[in-house]
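User: Sequence recovery, please. Input:
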């Protein structure tokens, strides 16, 4: 059982919320601190917001922690982000007291052995958990995910398991998101930029987009509540006429 008490949530709660946690560098700069201090603070915000999302009854949450493009940052920033992930993964979810299921997306081949081990442990320790599913995107790129899935389905066809015509949106989508995680309902980006930055390209097709100038480190439960309230006011037609 989760220790978190469910709270009254806005009228219609999105099933899957995805978040681009932007603005850590600027948060640190404003305080005369190194960018890495911003990421450390950002990790604390992440821990807080996971619990807040759970308390509002959100079932799936996906967070952009490190993109395939982030490797081009300075070596110092990349290694400190990797270390932050390694040092904090175990504490992100308290496996004993929380019912949260942890999973990861993104290529693991460039990650350290230690980090991959911690990711595998996190998945293993939370495998039976039936509460909110938290997905962390590490070394993740939306196009990369689509290309990998194309390779997988091409392999199925080459092996004679499916015919090329069997590759429908449904089959492709199923191959793309293992574990049955549904499409994103609400995509939040903090830090003022108005773009998707290669995040969940397939899964965000019909997501409601919500942008805020608030920097990730400052993002509070109240800010989350405002995003959820905005979502509940939107009319989602999925391409249908009114
Ligand atoms: C973007 O802000 C943020 C990132 C590239 C990293 C996000 C990572 C975390 C919040 C830490 C995750 C930690 C754990 C333990 C899972 P930016 O650096 O681009 O900020 P800027 O736009 O102000 O420069």
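Assistant: Recovered sequence (242 residues):
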């Amino acid at each position: 059982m989760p220790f978190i008490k469910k709270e009254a949530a806005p009228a219609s709660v999105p099933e899957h919320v995805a978040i681009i946690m932007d603005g850590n560098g600027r948060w640190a700069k404003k305080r005369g601190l190194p960018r890495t201090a911003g990421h450390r603070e950002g990790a604390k915000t992440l821990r807080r917001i996971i619990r807040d999302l759970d308390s509002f009854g959100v079932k799936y949450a996906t967070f952009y922690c490190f993109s395939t493009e982030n490797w081009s940052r300075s070596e110092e920033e990349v290694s400190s982000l990797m270390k932050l992930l390694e040092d904090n993964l175990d504490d992100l979810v308290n496996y004993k007291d929380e019912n949260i299921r942890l999973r990861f997306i993104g290529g693991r081949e460039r990650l350290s052995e230690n980090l991959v081990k911690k990711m595998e442990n996190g998945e293993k320790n939370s495998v039976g958990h039936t509460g909110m599913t938290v997905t962390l995107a590490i070394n993740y790129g939306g196009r990369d995910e689509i290309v990998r899935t194309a390779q997988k389905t091409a392999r199925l066809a080459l092996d004679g398991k499916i015919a090329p015509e069997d590759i429908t949106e449904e089959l492709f989508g199923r191959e793309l998101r293992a574990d049955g995680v549904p499409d994103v309902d609400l995509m939040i980006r903090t830090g003022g930029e108005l773009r998707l930055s290669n995040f969940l390209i397939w899964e965000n097709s019909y997501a409601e987009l919500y942008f805020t100038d608030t920097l990730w480190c400052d993002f509070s439960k109240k800010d989350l509540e405002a995003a959820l309230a905005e979502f509940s006011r939107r009319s989602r037609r999925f391409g249908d006429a009114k």
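Residues 21-26, 39, 42-43, 46, 65, 70, 84-85, 88, 92, 136, 191, 216 surround farnesyl diphosphate (CB under 6 Å).
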